[in-house]
Amino acid sequence: MAPLKAPRSDGSHVFFFQNQWDNIGEVVCAWVKDIFNGRPINQELNNTLIVLISKVAQPEEISQFRPISLCNILYKLVMKIIANRLKIVFPKIISQEQASLIAGRNITDNIIIAQEVIHSMRRKNMKWMAIKIDLENLTIEPVGTSLTNQSKQLEFQITHEELSC
Questions:
Q1: Is 1 helix (H, G, I), strand (E, B) or coil?
Q2: What pTM did the predictor assign?
Q3: Where in the sequence is the signal peptide annotated (predicted)?
Q4: What's the CA angle centered on 24, arms 40 and 75, to 5 degrees?
């Protein structure tokens, strides 16, 4: 963790923990072990602030902000341990098609693959249909060249509730 990034929700920097590790290291390690042995994380440590940082001088749209999360250091430490453990497991359970979850691959690879597939389908004059999903505007629309009249009139609707975690 970068020592002097934005202070966490508790106001402390990672630098404090790194600088004082000789004094607090044993207590922090014991606390982390307790968490992994089933002790619940205190609700106050679980709080995270999400702050929007402006990318431009006078932002007018939400896309002109960059969100950052200010987590408690101890909470972030536990989450980093979990993430590092999952890095070992993920390659065994995630298929190669899920590019955004594979280390060293970009989600933009999928854009190029999709363009190649659609180009190939158009070139071979095959019947095909693709569905374009715009998550930013929460709309779904069919895309294709060989759609029947019925499928051209299909309307896809998606609600915020369907996308919630």
A1: coil
A2: 0.52
A3: none
A4: 35
